[in-house]
Write a structure and sequence with these properties.
49% of the residues lie in helices and 16% in strands. By secondary structure, it is of the alpha/beta class. It has 2 domains: 199 residues, 2-enoyl-CoA Hydratase, Chain A, domain 1 (Alpha-Beta Complex); 42 residues. It has a 6-stranded mixed sheet with strand order 1-2-3-5-7-10, with helices on both faces. α4 crosses α5. The longest helix is centred in the last third of the chain and has 22 residues. It is globular. The model has no long low-confidence stretch (mean pLDDT 92). Belongs to the enoyl-CoA hydratase/isomerase family. Keywords: Isomerase, Lyase. One of its GO terms (biological process) is fatty acid beta-oxidation. It holds the Pfam family ECH_1.
Length: 251
């Protein structure tokens, strides 16, 4: 899908693997990475071959350290208010795109996932972690607001507002064991088996109907925001009627 400098994308058997590839900086996010991920997600949204996406980080030390404070942060923070808002909007958009692409996203996380790296984990559909994984919304620790890059949307929905509020207001790390206990992650495995586990889950998803995967992800996304059982059932009923009609048409 193109040659990139800060990420690596490989696809085989309907499973795409996106690797954040700046290991010397703990895969910190710079402006080039934002542009490249945005480009890739745009292609995945239209892809007819990629059915599931695995997201991971290169290197042994960490998944993603968040925004690169030595390069990208300087470019953004020193700009005008209009430029800062523009950069912020573009940065945050990649997490929206993660929810828009039809592929379920499986995050395979080792080491630290901080700031924007934490948001990559939150915006994924399934999270598999190692015992060394840890997560924090680091923004408040550097003088910013603790709610950024969709953290105030995703985290309360994933672990409940009580603990989410604590993590966002303190910038404290959520340990791997806490992530499991709170239901943030679905599995904890050793680093040596992390990608194999992610691929096993992806392989089971690939066996399903591509349209079924897409419609299920859409229903989950939409029902995160509904306010009544009636609305949730309406979305599910509509999707199932569409799927049954599609199956009959295929026959």
């Amino acid at each position: 899908m193109g040659d990139y400098e800060t990420i690596v994308y490989r696809e085989e058997g309907g499973v795409g693997v996106l690797t954040l590839n700046r290991p010397k900086t703990l895969n910190a996010i710079n402006l080039e990475m934002i542009e490249e991920i945005e480009d890739l997600f745009g292609k995945l949204e239209k892809s007819e071959t990629a059915r599931v996406l695995i997201l991971t980080g290169a290197g042994e030390k960490g998944f993603c350290a968040g925004l690169d404070m030595k390069t990208a942060a300087g470019e953004i923070f020193e700009g005008s208010p209009a430029l800062i808002y523009q950069c912020q909007s573009r940065f945050s958009r990649i997490y929206y795109m993660m929810r828009v692409i039809p592929q379920p996203v499986i995050a395979a996380i080792h080491g630290a996932a901080a700031g924007g790296g934490f948001s990559f984990a939150m915006a994924s559909d399934v999270r598999i972690i190692t015992p060394q994984a840890k997560f924090n919304a680091a923004y408040i620790n550097i003088g910013l607001g603790g709610a950024d890059l969709a953290s105030s949307y995703f985290l309360p929905r994933l672990i409940g507002s009580g603990r989410a509020n604590e993590f966002l207001l303190t910038g404290d790390f959520m340990t791997a064991q806490e992530a499991m206990d709170l239901g943030f992650a679905s599995r904890m495995v050793e680093k040596e088996t992390l990608m194999d586990t992610a691929r096993e889950i992806a392989a089971r998803m690939v066996e399903k109907s591509p349209l079924g995967l897409k419609m299920t992800k859409e229903a989950i996304n939409q029902n995160l925001g509904v306010t009544s059982l009636e609305q949730a059932l309406h979305i599910e009923n509509r999707n199932q009627a569409f799927m049954i009609t599609a199956m009959k048409t295929e026959k």
